[in-house]
Design brief:
The protein is an all-alpha fold. The protein has two domains: 52 residues; 34 residues. 79% of the residues lie in helices and 0% in strands.
């Protein structure tokens, strides 16, 4: 019978120890992978804008007009924002 075999009984705790060890190892690997992914994503979004393409003088002028327009709209200065649009 199986209960009479000391080899099988002695190997059972080792078998469960291996399963537990594998589960813990997989959890650690998952944590490392998630942490690495989060750091990479955060680095991408938090990188300084100076790494991107610089705007030309004309593009910067257009954006300044756009910002001025919205400031006038927010302030309710109809005459000023009509001048910017015209």
């Amino acid at each position: 019978m199986l209960g009479d075999n000391p080899t099988i009984l002695a190997s059972a705790p080792h078998f469960f120890s291996d399963i537990r060890h594998n589960i813990l190892r997989q959890r650690r690997q998952g944590i490392v992978m998630r942490t690495t992914l989060l750091v990479a994503i955060a680095g991408f979004f938090l990188a300084p804008s100076s790494y991107g393409i610089e705007m030309t003088v004309d593009e910067r002028a257009v954006w300044e007009l756009e910002e001025a327009y919205w400031q006038f709209v927010k302030a309710g200065d109809v005459g000023a924002y009509k001048e910017v649009v015209a």
